[in-house]
Amino acid sequence: MPIDVMMPFYGDVAQFRQAVTSVLAQDNPDLVLTVVDDCYPDDAPREWLLGLDDPRVRYLRNETNLGVNGNFRRCVDLVEHEYFVVMGCDDVMLPGYLGSVRALAAGNPDAAVIAPGVEVIDDHDRPVRPLGDRIKGMLAPSHTTVLRGESLATSLYHGNWTYFPSLLWRTDAVRAVGFRPGLEVVLDLALLVDLAATGASLAYDPTVVFRYRRHEASVSSVQAVDGRRFAEENRFFADEARRCVELGWNRAARAARLHATSRLHHTQARVGATVARLRR
Q1: Which phi and psi (to 5°) does residue 79 adopt?
Q2: Helices (H) and strands (E) in the chain — how many of each?
Q3: Tell me, what DSSP letter sits at residue 202?
Q4: Of residues 139, 86, 73, 95, the one with CA closest to residue 113
Q5: Which of 23, 119, 185, 196, CA to CA, is 20 to 30 A from 87?
Q6: For the chain, where are the E strands, in sequence order?
Q7: What was the pLDDT predicted at 262?
């Protein structure tokens, strides 16, 4: 059965073409690529995509701009098959990505989420390891494993070591939970811990099969500088700590209250902004 690759689009056209090309060049070609255009003000991406004349590709354009959360939720609504990916329009699938996550899903049929190994790249496709990604690497399991319930939530509250665009999701599990409305930055973490609260599991394999692009124009980077990211995260973790207490998840509650890597990231962003002001 095909895997749905959902690609919400609004961004750099050259990187979008690279992302699409990497999907269509998969070693395991059984897929449907759906590009959901969030009112990008140029017809060139649509014309290029339709010019590929690939029966695995479909293009849809929103009537109005839905924003990050809204377009992600629309992508989930449009999924037609058992598993799906919501891939960034600037990221890159390595040729073995779909074959790898498909095999991991087959070996863990109860898992709601499949997480592969990821390499981080910059705007020029060069591998990079910023501090945040080095910390993610330290927090991620060092070997193939399955996490579920409180263990999964606790691990993610310490620091979300997953990369949302690389994750393979089981459709029925996600639709039973859904994205929380009103979140722009931590919506992926919220979905993961909401699944954990249902007892769902995540299967992880550190083999690198996906390239995640880290650049200053991303939503998370922009909001980290002006503080909106951390205001959203602080509210989120406070709510999560209360929920974990109600669930009897004491370890997870402590991890949510501490949310150490979020605090560290906030400090790093404030120091960076101060240094930039001093340089100016």
Answers
A1: -60, 140
A2: 12, 9
A3: E
A4: 86
A5: 196
A6: 3-9, 31-37, 57-61, 83-86, 92-93, 113-121, 145-148, 168-170, 201-213
A7: 64
In 3D space, the residue among 240, 262, 261 whose CA is nearest the CA of residue 150 turns out to be 240
Q: Is the pTM of this model over 0.85?
A: yes
At residue 219, the pLDDT reads 43
Write down the pLDDT at residue 179. 86
CB-CB contact of 14 with 22 (8 Å): no
From the list 245, 167, 223, 187, the residue with the least C-alpha distance to 70 is 187
DSSP structure class, residue 109: T
Sign of the dihedral defined by the CA atoms of residues 14, 20, 23, 29, in that order: negative
Tokens of 44: 């060139």
Structure confidence by residue, pLDDT tens digits, 147-170: 999 999 999 999 999 999 999 999
Low-confidence ranges of the chain (pLDDT < 50): 217-224
| Separation in Å, CA 190 to CA 82, 172, 240 | 21, 17, 9
- Please report the pLDDT score of residue 220 as a whole number: 46
Task: Please give the backbone phi and psi of residue 30, each rounded to the nearest 5 degrees, phi first.
Answer: -80, 85
Half-sphere exposure of 22 (CA within 13 A, CB side): 24
